[in-house]
Design brief:
The chain is α/β, with parallel strands linked by helices and 266 residues long. It has helices at residues 24-31, 51-63, 72-78, 99-109, 124-137, 154-159, 175-184, 221-224, 244-261, and strands at residues 20-22, 39-45, 67-70, 87-91, 114-118, 141-145, 169-172, 188-198, 208-212, 229-232. The protein has a six-stranded parallel β-sheet with strand order 7-6-5-9-8-10, with helices on both faces. Belongs to the class IV-like SAM-binding methyltransferase superfamily. RNA methyltransferase TrmH family.
């Protein structure tokens, strides 16, 4: 058994300077959630006739958010040439959660804490995709490092297709210290590597944190020492590694299956 909780560390929420959400689906999800409170203005591409844009205008009117029609080249500039689909939201920066927020969310749902820790994920598309899967399987929150890793940007928001509004993200200055705290608070940490327990035989019941390493280097050595168990995804092909978002999805759904059978998820 893990020791009882010994401390509760509260971290001050931080923010990134990113201030745009692009794309119709991501915009609609933002306007339908608490994220709508951060929206300052909606830019819609002039001349477009699309039901999706009409629906966004209706949402904006109900929320009393100003809408500005703008030429395509302005939206191209605001979105840094991204695929904005004719809509860009100007928003206040994304806020980060605290470790206590994640435990509180699990307690509110009356479920064992189920977290995901990402060790220096650098690709915003990977982070966005991981957030989508984490939301789908009921993860209570994601933990990322403050330095040498992607944060909550507009690209992440778009790739997550709205999951960014539902998954709390903690940004910490030291993942090793955070891992130690999670263990003190009763969690089991599971990392990934080439050698370890076959993920198909992995017992993911209870309070767990899955740790996914950097796209190229994997989990850093000091963080790996904090793992209670290493889990591996068998491969027989020539390429002996998986994209971080794919590896995350496999492990998250294995945990999801185990927890559903155990009655831990509702």
């Amino acid at each position: 058994m893990k020791p009882e909780q010994t401390s509760k560390t509260t971290r001050t929420p931080q923010t990134d300077a990113s201030d745009f959400v692009i794309g119709r689906h991501a915009a609609a999800e933002t306007l339908k959630t608490e994220g709508a409170k951060r929206v300052n203005k909606i830019f819609l591409q002039e001349g477009m006739k699309a039901d999706a844009l009409y629906d966004l205008q209706k949402l904006a009117k109900n929320l009393r958010i100003p809408v500005q029609l703008a030429p395509k080249n302005k939206l191209d500039t605001l979105s840094d040439r991204g695929n904005h689909q004719g809509v860009v939201l100007a928003i206040s920066p994304f806020a980060y959660a605290t470790i206590d927020d994640l435990f509180a969310k699990a307690e509110e749902k009356k479920q064992p804490p189920f977290f995901l820790m990402l060790d220096n994920i650098e690709d915003p598309h990977n982070l966005g995709s991981i957030m989508r899967t984490a939301d789908a399987v009921g993860v209570h929150g994601i933990i990322i490092p403050k330095h040498r890793a992607v944060g909550l940007t507009s690209t992440v928001a778009k790739t997550s297709t709205g999951a960014i509004e539902h998954i709390p993200v903690v940004r910490t200055t030291n993942l090793v210290n955070t891992a130690k705290e999670l263990k003190q608070r009763g969690m089991w940490l599971f990392g990934t590597d080439m050698a370890g327990t076959d993920y198909r035989k992995w017992n993911a019941k209870g309070a767990i944190t899955i740790v996914i390493g950097n796209e190229g280097k994997g989990i850093s050595p000091l963080l790996k020492k904090e793992m209670d168990e290493i889990v591996t995804i068998p491969m027989i092909g020539h390429v002996q590694s998986l994209n971080a978002s794919v590896a995350s999805a496999l492990l998250l759904y294995r945990a999801f299956d185990v927890k559903q059978v155990a009655g831990e998820l509702s």
